[in-house]
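Hey,
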Amino acid sequence: MSAGVEERRGSVRGAVSPTPAAPPRPAARSRRRRAFGTAGPGETVLRYALLVVVLLIAIGPFLWQLSTSLKGAGEDIYTTNPSLIPSQPTLDNYARVLDAIPVWQYIGNSLLVAALSVGGNVVFSTLAGFAIARLRWRGRRIVLAVLLATLVLPGEATIVSQFVTIRDLGLADSLVGVALPGMVAALNVLLMYNAFRVIPEEIDQAAIVDGANAWQRLVGIGLPSVRGTIAVIAIFSFIGAWDDFLWPLIVLTTPEHFTLTIGLQYLAGTFTNDQRLIAAGTMIAFVPIAILFASLQRYFFRGVEEGGVKG
């Protein structure tokens, strides 16, 4: 009888004892080991290859212009086997550009136009964006719709009306007339509107309960949260004003008022066969943009991903 009981106990223990799990298959282990969003070796190589191609397309012309501007007169720049590194590097081309045209005067004119454009866009776009995003007033949605509609129009469609307006204001052939149409852009207003809109409404309500007016909320709450977007607007406004060629060409007629982009055309016309001088002038025009971006790059990348409020 005891033997029968022991047999039943053994069978029960065998029935309830856990069976060892089968080892996972190699394919399942590899799938679990590869996290979501990670790439395999082949995909990683392809990504880096595409990045190298994009990098060459982006900075290749810049490197070639820099190399050409540093090549001496005895070096052939039209050879069938071009070299990126000059065999006779020299800064004589930059000195010849300074002698050929009043570069510093043109740079000063361009800096004045760019400063007016940056200041106007930062101030007016910030005020307009805050008013549309954080204040409640009649017609706010209509104004926002009009701003969105203006983005559809190309700049060339309104350039004639802009010139007539500038002429009637007596600002033709002046640097203020060049800067005035670009001192506030609809796109910049929409960027500031979007930056202010993501600030939680509860923060505004708490400030109103504490007695803060609209100006105090803009200075104390809004501006600290949108500094990155302001840097983006400043960089884009500077580049747009600095590189603009068509509008200054239409407004300005006196050589003393020319901006750098127009002045460089004299260089191209005078030294058409010497691409070294043209490349040197191009690099002179590029330097201020590089300095500005290097100074504001951390704010620029912060503005690109801006949208959160730190607690």
